[in-house]
């Protein structure tokens, strides 16, 4: 059907559009440089290098013909349609559901039977495990924590360049993945540099979590699925998701067991010490997961109640590690220096350590850990890092106005953590600790001082060095309370 020109409110005068377009923010377009063509065309905010005066687009045929693919895990239209029409084949999940219902009937129709399931599904009895899994070599590897909003792909690429071994997607809601929601599927994308990569899912019921696991198993390129049993946020907890799964442990075990049975790759579970600080339950949970054949448990050494208050309890993490016969255990909480990392590895004998805020505040921590040395990074080197993030962001979110806006917002979210970094050259005592609030200080030059500012207006100023001026109506409120040293 022809579109009536009077219906469209957009300008159709290309010459006028090009003449009124604001100045480019970069000389080189990241997509054109990487792939030989820019999908944003005339709208690209670094478009001068591939746009002729008449608007025609240049293509670097040699590069474009290579069809370089740097990201995987896109949702195809066929799968989306099948999901929306509820026609996707979830036969493995259905089978698990039937097994579970049979167990429930045997045990009087409640979830208590699920408790017994794990014991019956003996880990080393090949007859009871429908899928023979090839384990991943996690031991001794550094792991970048899943980080909602800030653990996006451009940030993970930066951490990969600093040598992190394992990366994980931001938490994705299982229910939305099953609905084929674009935003949730975008969280599952994997960059080619992520050589050990998993996706983290969150949900509260069998269908959501087991079907989603089967779907990801069939349609995605991942090495493992991680179940979130740690998220403390009230709205998540109250629905029985995240750390809310601890409220009904038997139901949780049944779901995890079934997730493990419908996937061909290892499953991992990330959990806290318990719901309340007074009643840690992670040791018991670890023993159950161990019996089920879960390959890796990641224990954040705090209870749900604690959020980020008080330090993570690494003595307890050590006990969790000691309680596990086969399941590998990674510890998580407050690691902020290479000294911290190796000390905790040595003292607790965990199989590895996951790092969250330490990587957000100083992503080069992974290099420091591997080389066992402190890096007194300069403000110019940090600025180069931000430029790199922006390039990766424009490649990922697009280099038109919308992509620039997304890149800026994610950069600002990240800056809310980056500003907590205190250059080691200014510290009197090393190593720095995660929970020490530094007094306001002057850097060794203006840029270093600006980078330490906790004022959003200063973060915006820094973003403008890479992404040009912000629109007049631009407002930014950080999503995470990263400045709170308790939260
Ligand atoms: C901004 C932010 C986002 C987070 N998002 C997630 C998430 O999506 N999934 C998850 O399991 N944990 C999430 N966490 C918790 C971290 O993965 C990690 O367990 C916690 O920060 C403790 O580790 P750390 O002391 O090294 O930061 C998040 C933490 C922060 C600070």
TrEMBL record:
It comes from Smittium mucronatum. Its cofactor is FMN. The keyword Nucleotidyltransferase does not apply. Keywords: Flavoprotein, FMN, Metal-binding, mRNA processing, NAD, NADP, Oxidoreductase, Repeat, tRNA processing, Zinc, Zinc-finger. This is tRNA-dihydrouridine(47) synthase [NAD(P)(+)]. It holds the Pfam family Dus. Its EC number is 1.3.1.89. Residues 144-380 form the DUS-like FMN-binding domain.
